[in-house]
Amino acid sequence: VPNHLIWLIFFYWFFHSCLNGAELLQFGDREFYRDWWNSESVTYFWQNWNIPVHKWCLRHFYKPMLRRGVNKWTAQAAVFLLSAFFHEYLVSVPLRMFRLWAFMGMAAQIPLAWLVSRFLRGHYGNAAVWMSLILGQPIAVLMYVHDYYVLNCEG
Q: What's this model's pTM, rounded to 2 decimal places?
């Protein structure tokens, strides 16, 4: 089964099926995602696919950095690198191995975001976002599978 299909099924199950159950409880903050699939830029994708995490990062990291005089671009990059660290942590702890594949994959999104916003518009930008999703995540997963196999399965 393609990795991206699994990711889409997980997204639907978690964000749409499970979290939208909060509507039954009349939870006040019910916006968990926006139309990330129509993203014409990498930045738009990251701002819209996981709204609770995006708002939390804005509130607790990005805006305090701006208040301390950090410029906008540096604050955005710092918040994104912090998110990359946590993604790496969430992969490294269960696998009991520290590799930087998730971190580097996310860090590579920073120059990709700049390139897409600078050179690609409309459907071309959307195609670039989808290509990064379809190719980037499976490559990182394969790197972790390879390293896990080398560390744990070879004699």
A: 0.84
